[in-house]
Amino acid sequence: MKRFIIANWKCNPTTLALAKKLFISVQKGLKNIGNSQVIICPPFVYLQELLKFKKELKFGAQNCCWEEKGAFTGEVSPKMLKDLGCQYVILGHSEKRKYSCESNSLINKRIKSAIKQGLKPILCIDSISQIKPCLKGVSKRNVIIAYEPIWAIGTGKTPSFKQAEVFNNKMKKALGLKTIILYGGSVSIKNVKGFINQSGFDGVLLGGASLRAKEFMSIVQAIEDI
Ligand code: PGA
What is the predicted pLDDT for the residue at 102? Predict the structure, then answer.
């Protein structure tokens, strides 16, 4: 199975020119990847331009509406994203839960809507208790799960590989062995191999490191070399 590497650019960078520059350097450095699937998730406004460069990389959005269209100011429809060529969407990220007060039931609606339009949701969770309500009525094989302890996001702190392995095993028990489960939260070149080799994750979700092209490419290379 291919290993997944999700680049969550969050609300960065601040101009289209910088977004293109970052994307081009990342893409150049990833010409010969074979064992991993890299998915770039830029802000909505850059998707269309970046999709024009599309080669071996795939794209995801950072959220999507629970409906296909209508009076939902500020929302972006999964159908629009699919139409642009997006294949994935991050949902339930802890920053959306915190700053936009997103509940498990709203996230569940977004997940269903994304799947209906042919997008693959990358559901972020930080506790097992979020799995059931977020995936109510959803087939587990239609989603990718990213385990991201909130305290590890952007802090440089991470759980030990053993702790992460214990959590990973619990999730596997709850979700079944076929579900792709990723680790996210302060992933760096120093710890990436441990989360895959020792904790047994199927890949990683990167925030900060995905904005630094060289570091990002070395992380991808490290995963390729495993
Ligand atoms: P980080 O972010 O890699 O900067 O910790 C991860 C995330 O929030 O998805």
Answer: 97
pTM as predicted: 0.97
pLDDT recorded at residue 33: 87
Among the listed residues 95, 102, 148, 165, the single catalytic one is 148
DSSP track, the chain: -PEEEEEE--S--SSHHHHHHHHHHHHHHTTT--SEEEEEE--HHHHHHHHTT-SS-EEEES---SSSSSS-TT---HHHHHHHT--EEEES-HHHHHHS---HHHHHHHHHHHHHTT-EEEEEESSGGGHHHHTTT--GGG-EEEE--GGGTTTS----HHHHHHHHHHHHHHH-TTSEEEEESS--TTTHHIIIIIT--SEEEESGGGGSHHHHHHHHHHHHH-
pLDDT at 116: 98
Report the b/e string of 178-201 with b at 16+ CB within 10 A. Answer: ebbbbbbbbbeeebbebbbeebeb
What's the 122 CA to ligand 1 centre distance in angstroms?
14
Q: Which residues of the chain have pLDDT under 50?
A: none
Give the amino acid at 27: Q
- Number of the ligand 1 atom closest to the C-alpha atom of 95: 8
